[in-house]
Amino acid sequence: MESTPLTHLTETQSIPTSGARAVEPFQLNGMHLLAIPQLAYDVPGGKIDMNGGDSDTDLLLLRRGDKGYEPFQRIAVPGGEDAEFFRIGDRAFLAVASIRRGKGPYEYATDSQVLEWNGESFVPFQSFKGFAAKQWKHFAYDGRHFLALAQGVVVPGHEAENRPSRIYTWDGERFAHLQDVDSQWGYNWHAFELDGHRFLAYADHVRPSVLYRWDGERFEPYQELADRHGRAFAHFTVDGVTHLLVARLQSPSQVLRWDGGKFVVHQTLPGPGAREFAVIQGHDGTLYVVRVNFVLGTPADPTTALNSELYRWQDDRLTLIETFPTTGATDVAAIPDEHGLLLAVSHSLTADIRFAARTVLYRFTG
Q: What is the phi/psi pair of residue 216, to 5°?
């Protein structure tokens, strides 16, 4: 796909990162912060391998100043995959997911942490045993707080160590285990409410991605969303109709429509490679969707230099209006500021399969 001239996105900052896997913007004590977990550093003289590198890494925490985002704190988070900021009352937390540690062979049985803000920095609060953790998601119903961890991977020789994805609940002092979710290679969660239902969408790479519904005590399977290759979700409502975006890495992604009782396929977004979505609104209320693409091919022979896409909702469907170059893109987040809207896009690999890529901020005009 050839890139079209960029009319809606203008690059404003390029931040040095290494194997960046997510971008998590949040506000705290009057500060605008951006958390970026990093999977790996390049090993000098090491072979080219998208699953290699040195995973004894730091999470980057940056603070927005007059000249953009600047370093604020580095936190030891090996094999960083995700960061999720949330509050419980007047307390502030940052959950960080670690997929592995070491320089190879890697330890996938690696703890993931929840950090708490102490007024000056984030410090360890609670540790969770995990295996190839990918993503945390915090959400709350009726004052009850939940924290879900997507994890697991199929690694030859480690089958017995693999763990199911898990949902925890706040007991007033710490997060306690609530339930396991049938999984094998978990990637992502998305919580939302619709027509009186409290839904939790779960993405798995090798097993079906499933929509769960809260029954007051547990999350029970409600509907299959994709048979395999699940990566992420986002939802939006237009003219009273709710749609669910399903990102899939090795299959076309889809737009599902709520028909009053279940989600049905409304539109297929062509091409594999999708990793994440962001739903944004233009100044006139027009709805846009950003899709970032990760890799094509195989881990042994990957293609990371891909175009990611900007869609606009028109005539009851998403219409591609612009593409922009990315390399191993892993996440996208919208950041409101005094001038409008910024988009942060994390890149985990360069075009020549190195980890020293960059996280890029764009000014969105729409």
A: 100, -20
Q: Which two tokens stand for residue 360?
A: 């890029």
Amino acid at 365: T
Helix/strand/coil (H, E, C) string of 176-207?
EEEEEECCCCEEEEEEEEECCEEEEEEEECCC
Question: How far is Cα 49 from Cα 196, in angstroms, rounded to an integer?
Answer: 47
- Give one word for 206, left, alpha or beta, with left for phi > 0 and alpha for psi -120 to 50: alpha
Model pLDDT for residues 205-237, shown as the tens digit of each residue: 999 999 999 999 999 999 999 999 999 999 999
If residue 245 lies in a helix (H) or strand (E), which one and from where to where? strand 241-248
Q: Which of 286, 241, 283, 280 is nearest to 264 (CA)?
A: 241
DSSP state of 268: E
* Token pair 């003289």 in the structure block, residue: 45
- Give the CA-trace dihedral at 194, 197, 198, 204, to 10 degrees: -80
Query: What pLDDT is recorded for position 203?
Result: 98
Contacts of 123 (CB under 8 A, 6+ apart): 115, 116
3-class DSSP state of 161: helix
- Which DSSP symbol is given to 121? S
**Does the model's pTM come out above 0.90?**
yes
